[in-house]
Amino acid sequence: MLKFPKSAAVAVLGLTVLATPAWADGDAGAGEKVFKKCSACHAVGDGAKHKVGPELNDVFGRTAGGAEGYKYSSAMVAAGEGGMVWDDTTLTGYLANPKGMIKGTKMAFAGLKKDDEIADVLAYLRSFSQSEAAVTPAAAAAAVETEVAPVEAAAAPVADQAVPAEAMIVEKSQGAFGLGRVATPDEVAAWDIDIRPDGTGLPPGRGTVAEGDPIYAENCAVCHGDFGEGAGRWPVLAGGHDTLLKERPEKTIGSYWPYLSTVFDYVRRAMPFGNARSLSDDDVYALTAYLLYLNDIVTEEDFELSNENFASIRLPNEANFIEDGRPDEPHYAKGLEPCMTDCKPGPVEITARAQIIDVTPDGGGDENAGGGID
After folding, report:
1. Can you name the residues that pair with 306 across neighbouring β-strands?
2. What's the pTM?
């Protein structure tokens, strides 16, 4: 059963109403934080390139479906051919309800629900646009009424000369070819962050379900859905109980994963998508606690997960994972070399194709199916 904290103040509503234009100037600094929800699929700024969605430099004034080198959905291309140009009005409506505004868009994101978040992210994107369409009505009116005198830039103070760092003492490679060098203790420590099922390797820290709720909403819901149900083709994180024997099992944290250490380690190491290693250890504990809550493994919002009680949490499917017994099998026990040629009599036959046996996601014929703002 998917659920959300009882303390949530707003219920999830159908995305059927477009937001009114967010023509307030907005806060670009706050918009940079909101844009983290978008950064998994979009890039902006120096060197920005297309990702799952197109890069968003100079998006104001751009014709819908007009970023060179990006393959859009036919619906977005048609919108551009129909005259749609991205400005405050069109971007506000699209960010509030992408699929409601352009049916058939590839953008998997459900939309921003708060007008101030839309205004803020538009202010942030506006800072990367040179088009006149990026100028807010308020700023345009002020420019007409007020002639701004040029201000001479103050001479920048001469920066203190950098003190040369001490040369790092490293041990040369002892390998046969003398390539590379021995990693320093600090370099080893930076990579040695894996977490074992018994809790070995856990950093000190703690976090509650209630603290994890807003972290999830800001960093994870854009791909994994508000309640872990998965947005579009992104992975489902919650539910799936009693589905492993069905034709289409849902392999979630609660239904399939064997150890909580895998959840913690993966989130800490690789998430949020596009902004990995940005969460503090306390954030990861809180987020892991919230994922346990979404999967009914813990039931109280004030439950606190820490390095002290971590190993006591067991996932439902742990018993169905067994140790790798291959070293004890006759072939391995005898130390025989594996067969590499002519291992099976007769010609090789293709018995099934990946798409037929349903292990290849169906993109509806679109090889670039995924999220995209335009």
Report:
1. 206
2. 0.54
Distance, in Å, from the CA atom of 84 to the CA atom of 98, rounded to the nearest integer, reads: 14
Which one-letter DSSP state was computed for residue 272? S
Q: In whole angstroms, what is the distance from residue 222 CA to residue 232 CA?
A: 10
Q: Is the pLDDT of residue 371 over 50?
A: no
**CA diameter of the chain:** 89
E-state strands within the chain:
206-208, 304-306
Please state the three-class secondary structure of 56-77 as a single string: CCCCCCCECCCCCCCCCCHHHH
The secondary structure of 167-191, three-state, reads CCCCCECCCCCCCCECCCHHHHHHH
Residue 97 is given by DSSP the state -
**One-letter amino acid of 262:** T
Cβ proximity of 52 and 58 under 8 Å: no
Running DSSP on this structure, what letter comes out for residue 239?
A: -
Q: Does residue 272 have a cis bond before it (omega within 30 degrees)?
A: yes
Residue type, 203: P
3-state helix, strand and coil shares in percent for the chain, rounded to the nearest 5: 30, 5, 65
H helices within 175-247, ranges in order?
Answer: 185-191, 209-219, 221-224
Mean pLDDT value across residues 103-112: 79
Structure confidence by residue, pLDDT tens digits, 120-135: 889 999 999 887 556 6
Q: Which secondary structure element, helix H or strand E, spans residue 86, and what is its range?
A: none
Four-point Cα dihedral 191, 197, 201, 207, nearest 10:
110
